Amino acid sequence: MDQVRIGRFITEKRKAQGLTQAQLAEALGITDRAVSKWETGKSLPDASIMLELCSLLKITVNDLLNGEVVTVEKYNETMERNLLEMVKQKEEKDRQLLKMEVVIGVMSTLFLLAMVAVGAVFMKQGQPKWIFFLLFGVGLAQFLVCMLFALRIEQTAGYYECAECGHRYVPGFAAVTFAMHMNRTRCMKCPACGKRSWQKKVLSKE
Predict the structure, then answer these.
(1) What is the DSSP letter of 203?
(2) How far is CA 65 from CA 43, 69, 70, 92, in A?
(3) Cβ atoms of 150 and 99 closer than 8 Å
(4) Which structural domain range is residue 157 located in?
(5) So what's the pLDDT on residue 116?
(6) Who is most buried in 16, 63, 136, 201, counting CB within 10 A?
(7) Do both 114 and 198 map to the same domain?
(8) Residue 200 has what pLDDT?
(9) What is the pTM of this model?
(10) In angstroms, how far apart are the furthest CA atoms of the chain?
């Protein structure tokens, strides 16, 4: 998708409706800085507000993603192309999030170990034991927070594929958190067939 072209199109349609960036942002419940990023081609509107944005600008989602008003003759062609592009962008975003999950896990573990090591050094130097427990507590607290954040990424990025029926879905947070797992493969109950199996993480819906 040509973000610069889409940005110019948003600017054109916003002005056609007599709206300022601040007014459009207020109507969408976002900041005018976000609108500015769209219009300069630095980012695209989030999928969750695309319909509302298009309604305010009196255009279709297909028009928005194409960066121009699409004629009836080209509508199906451009819609299919734009949908495929959105799927590719989601897969790439999920891929980056899963990489971030690994980084979060490694960094939080190293920080916890560093706090334990520093606390052990202080104890050897004759410092009070509470200093060790304080450092350990700080390290453990950040580790738990980071693990919850990493689990949230694990839950929402991509899909899990049932080994029994092949159904791909996004499980609930509790299911991901408490399921037995090996790396990113988790033993969960499939909502489609109802069977429990070891389900692997995949990026695409189909």
Answers:
(1) S
(2) 12, 10, 10, 18
(3) no
(4) 102-202
(5) 93
(6) 63
(7) yes
(8) 92
(9) 0.59
(10) 81
